[in-house]
Amino acid sequence: xxxxxxxxxxxxxxxxxxxxxxxxxxxxxxxxxxxxxxxxxxxxxxxxxxxxxxxxxxxxxxxxxxxxxxxxxxxxxxxxxxxxxxxxxxxxxxxxxxxxxxxxxxxxxxxxxxxxxxxxxxxxxxxxxxxxxxxxxxxxxxxxxxxxxxxxxxxxxxxxxxxxxxxxxxxxxxxxxxxxxxxxxxxxxxxxxxxxxxxxxxxxxxxxxxxxxxxxxxxxxxxxxxxxxxxxxxxxxxxxxxxxxxxxxxxxxxxxxxxxxxxxxxxxxxxxxxxxxxxxxxxxxxxxxxxxxxxxxxxxxxxxxxxxxxxxxxxxxxxxxxxxxxxxxxxxxxxxxxxxxxxxxxxxxxxxxxxxxxxxxxxxxxxxxxxxxxxxxxxxxxxxxxxxxxxxxxxxxxxxxxxxxxxxxxxxxxxxxxxxxxxxxxxxxxxxxxxxxxxxxxxxxxxxxxxxxxxxxxxxxxxxxxxxxxxxxxxxxxxxxxxxxxxxxxxxxxxxxxxxxxxxx
Length: 505
Prior knowledge:
Number of helices: 20
Number of strands: 12
Helix content: 40-55%
Structural class: alpha+beta
Number of domains: 3
Strand content: 5-15%
Distance between the termini: 24 Å
Strand order of the largest sheet: 1-2-9-8-5-11-10
Pfam families: Plavaka (PF18759)
Oligomer: single chain
């Protein structure tokens, strides 16, 4: 049969050999060992330079790639209040970094590296997890990057998922896990240090050879990941004290130079190193992966997270406050949900919204669309005026939707800040009602940093964790299901290599 069909293989073994050795695809995975507290752990990853090269030279992206920063304005006079932010190349980070780079090495092309990581469940009951790390570049427009079918994101590798149960001290275990994370990330990303400083010749999909500087620009992850990456405890961006998280005020930006000076003491006396890290406001981590990155401030590289910070946190809290028995209570709110007429624009919650469990981001999105209409004419159970409460809800919802604009002007960013201030000005109604005692919520505080991030890196679509959640299906869960679940990661990486070949052809 194989001879009659003119096939170059006779069985699956020969087909896999051809796929593995003769056909082009994404970069191959390699395995390294990391030793922590006397135990070794495997890490699987690709060459980060080759991953960037694969995206940069992809002919499907050639017509869309951006090679230089731009400043966009909505009026010909180019007034600062009319500046527009949308794609990453319209932000201030690329512009200022290009100027700094041109002063030292003229003719440089910046490739902004966007890294995202997120631990995910592989099984429902056996507790198996994977820790994928994804990479993309800011030269590719956001509309392409956010579509999994365009394959503008590359699985860079899998970090170890061990819990280090052999370490009995909880404090030592947490520190060892953080060091393990940074050691793994350093193995993956260390080539970016030299590639960022001196540049590399890279040929794009248009055939032009450019001197490209690969610069770590942004990290995409949820709040625990942000703290892990920045080695911080409260806010990954500023030095706000924990007891001031609910004030609505931002702290001073973290001093990168002071942090780097503290990290240089790692080989000295442990007491001095710990004291220096404490003074700089970070945890005593041994050589964080970003320590040597040029033109990178890791504390500014932390980006907003619409899914986990707003929908899965603030909207979740807001619904719980409103349906509390000291506010409107669950009975009338659920009754109004059930009485909503059938329509084609909003979701019907026929059993109400207070009985939902394991609420997804999409469900919180649907709830946010109707929550104001559910409560606008309700009376509080204890007779309080609803004016401040409605203003607080309106402020939160306005901020939610303004933060998701596909393009921003300086004026709309001002509107977003005003909406957040409106919430803070009226939030104490929940304290007066007895619903909450205080508002020390890190994710509420992080909302105050959204404007700065949008001005640096463009709108929030450029760094959306929802994209990462979708990638788990293609690059982690499907790969795991294709394995025999024993020594899974070796099989998963091989399956992904073959999968990339078939999708590239």
